[in-house]
Amino acid sequence: MGMDFTALIKYEIPDKDRLNAIYSLERTSPQQVRRVTENWRTYKYADISINYPIWVKNFGEQEQIPRPELPTLKASLRMPEGFFITFGYDSMEIYHFLRWQIFLTDKLWQKIMTEACKAFANMFGAVDGIITSDWSPVIEAFFNGKSFDEALVQGQGDDKEVSEIEELYNVLDDTTWDSHGYWRFSV
Q1: For residue 8, which of 118, 94, 76 has the smallest C-alpha distance?
Q2: What domain count does the chain have?
Q3: Closest Cα partner for 58 from 134, 112, 113, 118?
Q4: Does residue 167 have a pLDDT over 70?
Q5: To which H or E segment does residue 78 belong?
Q6: Separation CA 43–CA 46 (nearest Å)
Q7: Within 10 Å of residue 176's Cβ, how many Cβ atoms?
Q8: Helices H, strands E: what count in the chain?
């Protein structure tokens, strides 16, 4: 099992505006997000797209459920571009099937995924955002009900903030790599 791409975005937006942004996502994705599918197809990765956004109980699931009462950590909005968005009280987690190592080593993927995260952040009036792997203790803390700021506290030691994406990729030897920490992107 490998690590996958994940972002955590803190929003300070009134509930009504947050719900309107979610309703908008249920209809269509921002152009920057749609570019992810274009690049995914260019690389000829396995098809992960669906025809329209659906709510699912857990990321990776295909079975559609009715829109849950929000915020909730027990359901995600699955987007046609392969994103799963989970809405917490003060932040949203954005998961994608893109392998973390590919994101860390491919400049084009870094640009496309960061632009997609910025588009999501813009829709939700974000005030802060990080990119990390789905194995990060920060993401685990989010799913344990912690606020954005409380979750970042979990990023200590090896899992702390780095100043450049490249610092997240650690080559251990000719065949082994590892990754710890998170990178803050400008929202």
Answers
A1: 94
A2: 1
A3: 134
A4: yes
A5: strand 72-78
A6: 9
A7: 8
A8: 6, 10
b or e along 19-37 (b: 16 or more beta carbons within 10 Å of the residue's beta carbon)? eebbeebeeebbebbebbb
Q: What is the mean pLDDT of residues 128-146?
A: 97
The whole-number average pLDDT for the span 165-181 is: 93
Residue 147 is encoded by which pair of tokens? 């606020």
pLDDT value at 74 more than 50: yes
- Beta-ladder partners of 11: 126
Angle, helices 15-27/107-123, rounded to nearest 10 degrees: 130
Q: What pLDDT score does 59 carry?
A: 67
121: containing domain = 4-184
Q: How large is the average pLDDT for residues 11-32?
A: 94
Answer for the pair 40, 85: CB distance below 8 angstroms, yes or no. Answer: no
Tokens representing residue 166 in the block: 């490249």
pLDDT category of residue 2 using cuts at 50, 70 and 90: low
Q: Which residues contact 51 (CB under 8 A, 6 or more apart)?
A: 80
